[in-house]
């Protein structure tokens, strides 16, 4: 197993270099690309089918990602699908949801609430913010096959307190929400973190310990979530989906889970080309990079007000401008569905495409009006 460690930003910076790779636009849920599995610790390559047979015998499988890379999420889906088809009793642990919202994930998997309700109830667009379409095929597969999805992350409010005060500065109630033991023993991990920290402009050396505390808070909190679930469900195998920086070298989440329940795990990371190091993972997988179609946009900048969603600005030449929306308008509904937040707007536009027409109801100077708006497009992933 990987014995060294790394950190979130360093790995993300490496993975972002994949932007030079050829990208292909695919429809949501489209055919996954062929994968080439590289064995860092040995000689030769394998295909994904061979690897899946080995994965089926592990208690925890970690599959990394760069959050904005659709091809990485398709790899994650292929691993989940392959294990499911081999009869493995799965759960999916996701960094992208925070623990207080677990009941809404359970309700989504059970078919008790809609996708739109799940996104609003889990506060996806406020707390994670990445394009939901990147993760949609995975979550829909989980729902279709009744695979539990487990929220791994700690509440954002807690990490904000750690960032402000450090772990040692938390009050008793806040500290009780973190694992009792925070492992700081990996000096190589600390050194790598310091190298990344030193690249941040405007950061003073005195802030480094606080910086470390936030990383340890994420790592230990998510590791505790994985361990707690597997201890309660010993029959399950968990596929953990998280940013590659939480997984590379085994130090972020994997070693901390192993400290709690043992080390029967395996790490898979999307390959990064000439930046890969043998110790990063058990397997590196070459992924053909793909991008989602452009996301539909109204062309407004919004804020909040006592009445709801307030238009703070209108993009010149956008569908919103052409429809006659103005700064100060209060958005009330899209296609007859009420909206009261940015998240609500994003949900209403989720299945819309650039060029589609929507009806927008809004209030201006105490009067309610309705206009037809032609959607524009955002930059694609």
Polypeptide structure, described:
The radius of gyration is 22 Å and the shape is globular. An eight-stranded mixed β-sheet has the order 3-2-9-8-4-7-5-6, with helices on both faces. Strands 12, 13, 14, 15, 16 and 17 form a six-stranded antiparallel β-sheet that branches. A two-stranded parallel sheet has the order 1-10. It is α/β, with parallel strands linked by helices. 34% of the residues lie in helices and 22% in strands. The model is unreliable at 1-33 (pLDDT under 50). The protein has helices at residues 8-15, 48-55, 70-85, 102-109, 115-121, 124-127, 136-144, 156-165, 172-175, 187-197, 208-232, 254-261, 319-323, 342-348; strands spanning 23-25, 36-38, 45-47, 60-63, 90-98, 149-153, 237-241, 265-270, 283-286, 289-291, 296-297, 300-305, 308-314, 330-334, 337-338, 357-364, 367-374, 376-377. Helix 4 (102-109) packs antiparallel against helix 5 (115-121), helix 8 (156-165) packs antiparallel against helix 11 (208-232) and helix 11 packs across helix 12. It folds into two domains: 8-291, Rossmann fold, CATH 3.40.50; 296-377, Roll (Pdz3 Domain).
Per-chain topology:
Layout: H1 8-15, E1 23-25, E2 36-38, E3 45-47, H2 48-55, E4 60-63, H3 70-85, E5 90-98, H4 102-109, H5 115-121, H6 124-127, H7 136-144, E6 149-153, H8 156-165, H9 172-175, H10 187-197, H11 208-232, E7 237-241, H12 254-261, E8 265-270, E9 283-286, E10 289-291, E11 296-297, E12 300-305, E13 308-314, H13 319-323, E14 330-334, E15 337-338, H14 342-348, E16 357-364, E17 367-374, E18 376-377
Parallel strand pairs: 1-10, 4-7, 4-8, 5-6, 5-7, 8-9
Antiparallel strand pairs: 2-3, 2-9, 11-18, 12-13, 13-14, 14-15, 14-16, 16-17
Helix pairs in contact: 4-5, 8-11, 11-12
